[in-house]
Amino acid sequence: MRFFQVHTQYRPLRLNVGFLLSQSAGYGREFDFREPKLTLGGDICVEEFSGHLRLNRTPQGIVAQGDFSAQIPAECARCLKPFDAPLSVHLEDLFVYPPQNATDPLLSIGEDAHLNLEPLLREYVLINEPTRLLCRPECMGLCAVCGNDLNEGPCSHPEEALQTPLVRRILAAGAEKTLAASKAAEPAPRKGSLAPRTPAVASKPPKKKPASKDPLKKPPGGKKSAAGGKSAAGGKKKKPTKK
Fold it and tell me: pTM of the entire structure?
C-alpha cells in the first residue's frame, strides 16, 4: 500500500472548535496569534499580524472576543512614498451553530466544527482602513512646480525654472479654466436680438383710485339733500312754480 502526503494551505484563522461545542455553556478558551505575513480573503495582504482571541460556549454557538493589530502596505497620499500603515481591529461577535440557524454566513460555524475568522476579519479591515493614508500627519507633500519632496527641505525656483514647458502648460490650463468660468457667469443674450441686454427699469407703482363717495352719507353740515324734502343750504323749502 502506498501513502501520499497531502499539502494543505496554512490557515491560522481557521480554528477547530469541536471541543468547545461538546462543552456546556460558559466554557471558554483563549488563543494568541502572531504571523509575520497573512493574506485575508486572497486579496488583502497584511504584515506583523498579532492578536488575542477568547471563545466562550453559549447555547446559540460560540462568542468570539478579540483585539488584533497589523500593518498594511500603503502609499502616502501627499508624498507618494510607500510605507506600512498601522491598523487595529476589535472583534466581538456570536458564531451560530448549527449553521442553518445563522442569518449571516460569515457568523456561522460549519458542519465540520471549524470556525473561520478570515472572511470576517477581512470585512473589519476594509471598514477600519482610512480612505486617505498619510505616512505622518505633518507630511509636507511634493512641490507643485518641480515635484521635489518638501519633507527633505524647501526648494527655490529661479525665473528660468518657472518657464519650463510643464509649468507653462499648468499655467495655461489654469488660465483657460478661469476664462471658461467667467464666460459661464455672463448673462446669455436674448433670442432674436443682437443688442446687448439692458437693465430692466423699475415700473412706477400704480396710482391709488380715490374712494367713491357713499350716496347714503350726509353732505357736509349734517343736512339732508333736496331729495329728502329740505334745501341743501339755508334750510328753506323751494316754492312750487305755477303753471
Answer: 0.57
